[in-house]
Each structure stands twice: as structure tokens, then as C-alpha cells.
Known about the structure:
8 strands; 56% helix; two-stranded antiparallel ribbon; Alpha-Beta Plaits
Amino acid sequence: MVVPQLADVEEDVDTDVEAHNDNDELYESDDELLFDEYDSFDNPISHEERKKNRWYADFFGTLDSLTVNQINEPTRQWHCPACQNGPGAIDWYCSLQSLVAHAKTKGSKRVKIHRDLAEILEEELRIKGAAVNPAGKSYGQWKGLNEVVKDKEIVWPPMVIIRNTQLEQDENEKWVGMGNPELLDYFGSYEAVKARHSYGPKGHMGMSVLIFDPSAVGYTEAERLSKHFENEGIDRAAWDHHPILFYPGGKRKLYGYMATKEDMDIFNKHSQGKSKLRFELVSYQEKVVDQLEQMNEENQQLHLYKTKEVKHQMYAKAIEERIDWTSERLRKREVEDRIKERIQQHCEQLEEALDYQEQLIKELMLSRNAKEGEFEKLQQEDRMRVERSYSAVDPQREEKLEEIKEFGEEREKLKNMYMKKKIELEKWFDAELTQLMDKYTHKN
């Protein structure tokens, strides 16, 4: 089993997150690399420590060597340190204020790094006494694409006026027209939430309205539908100047455009009380632009949170694998310890048995030696008796002496056989014991 290295997890996470990018974007999706250096444990750090981060160290080193007047020289230009090694690395910024604006509004790559740079740079300029204009303002003689959108009043909730929705007159000579479900279904791809129609003394006035969700997204959908009418040449301008009511073949041509207060007053002209369609005039900047900017920031934060969640999940997985690996090692060690304990017990029992057998053998040998000594004493006495009792030429004397000699020879043979078998048994025991020790040594 491969042991997981927890120290490599965060690098592996960044690699996984970047894996789907093209090679030319390798350095463009590494927001988290900045914060691996000092944000891993959410410890607060000082402004000066943040300046020493490897992304900004050279930049702020240069900045610290300049006076305020030198920093504000109109001829001095700056590269963005957060764009280094990326497509934006070659871009020049004519002032630090424009660089702050870039860092605050960068919205596609390295968002977190740019936001961090903006915070540090604003604080540094504040400390040095250099003013920082808000992002989107004009700097000197120049204006960029970040200029704030001019505010205006818009109808709220967002609505799109649909014209020429009359169909025909009934038997009472009153006009009938398109119904609510039909109108919603007709423009179903634009996510309108309601449909209403204007009625007057003669019935359906041919003026309808699609109402969208009161949110920046709803306004965007309404604006998209209005733009569709404009691209087709059937917008407000076409309706106000000689509209063509029918297509060839007799089908009515619908016109559409974003609703204004004047349109809503016309729509409600013949309505009374609760039948009037309620609306209000609100700030476009507040209801749409600010909401979209907030949504963009939230989406960026969500992306960063998702990236961190991936990192946390992979870190948790690495920890889990490490725990599994450690648990497996501990389990194996417990098994090995139990085996060693059993071997030790077995060896102790074997040693006790051998000691007992050795003691028994010693006792047997002592008993045998005593018997042998006693028998030899008797043999010696018998030899002496024979030599005294029989004459030198007596045949019985020779026979008795021969018997004593044969006994001695047989006893020597028996001892030799005993020693030979004892040696063979010792060799067998030594070989078997060696094999047993090798077996359990291999297991350990």
C-alpha cells in the first residue's frame, strides 16, 4: 500500500483544479497558490508580512524605494504583479490608481490574488499619503472601460410591452385577443413569470405585458427579449412608425420593447382600483448594476469556496487513507506481537521440557553408572574368586575368564552404539531447531 503524503495534498489539489485548462492558461487558474503561503491556517498577518509574499515582494520593494512624488510621476508606468507569467503580464498601467482599479475589477483569472493586491496596495498608498480613487473613476486625462454606467429610472418589476395582440371582434363588436397562458407560452424561452392585457371600452386593446422576476436576472431576461425584438426590426421604433400589422398570409405580427412609465400609464388608462397593474420607478444602478456586481462577486467567492471544498475533501481523503494505512500497520503489528508471544511461550515450554528431559537423563545416567559400577565390582570380585578357586590349567577357569572378557567387549560395543545414536540424535535436533527458527524469523 502506498503511504499518502499529507504534505503534498494542497499541491495535488491545485493540480487537479487546473487539469481541465489549456497549457497556455496554466498560470491563470492558480488563485489558491497565493494563499498557500500564509493563509493555510487563517492566521492574521501584518500588512508588512503580506507585502513580502513572493507574488508582490519585488513590486513593493520597488515601491518602498520611491517617494510619493516619484510614485505619482505621470511618466511612470507599472506592471501588475498578480498577472506575472500570464497574458496580462505585458500590460502597462499609467498610475497606481489605475492598477488598483484593474486589481479590483479583474473578473476572469486569478481573482483572489488581484483582490488581495488591491487591498495591500490601497493600504500602502494610504500609509504613504497618496490618494486612491475608487475603481471605475477617471484618472487624469484618461477614461477606461470601467467607467460607472450612467444611472436611469426603470420600471419595476421588469416588463416588456407586447403590441398587436388583438385577434378579432366578437358579436358585440368588442375586441378579443391573446390570453395569458398563450402569451407566456409564446415567449416561454424568456422566463417571464406573468402576463397581463390592457382592456378598454371596446375590449382587448391589443396591448399586453410580460412581467419578469423583480431581480437583476429578471431584468436581464426582459432586456434580452427586448433586444430580440430590436434585432428582428419589430421594436418600439417600428411600432411608432407605420407598423405592419400582418404577415403575408394573415398572421398578426407582434412588436415588443422594454416598458417605460408612459407605457404603463397607457396600459392602466382604463383600469380602475385593483385591476391596475402596479409598478414603481427605481434606480437602474441600484436594482440591476449593483445586484449584478454583487452576484459576480458572490459567484467568484462561490468558485473559490468550491475550490477550497475540493481541497478540503482531498485533504480529508488523504487523512482517511493515512489513518487506514496506520490502522493496517497497527493490526499487522498486533498480529506479529501475538505470534511472537506464542513463540516465546512455546520456546519457554520447550525449554522447560528439555530441562526436565535433561534432568531425567542425568538421573538415569547416575542410576546406570551406579548399577554399572556395582556390576563391575561384582565382576572384579568374581574374577578374583575364579583365579583363586581354579588352577592355572583348569578348563573352567579359562571359560569363566572368557565370559568376563566377552562381557567387557559387548559392553564396549553397546556404549559405542549409544554414543553413535546420541550424536545422530543431536544432529537431527540441531537441524530441526535451526529450521524452526528460520521459519519464524522469516515471518517476523
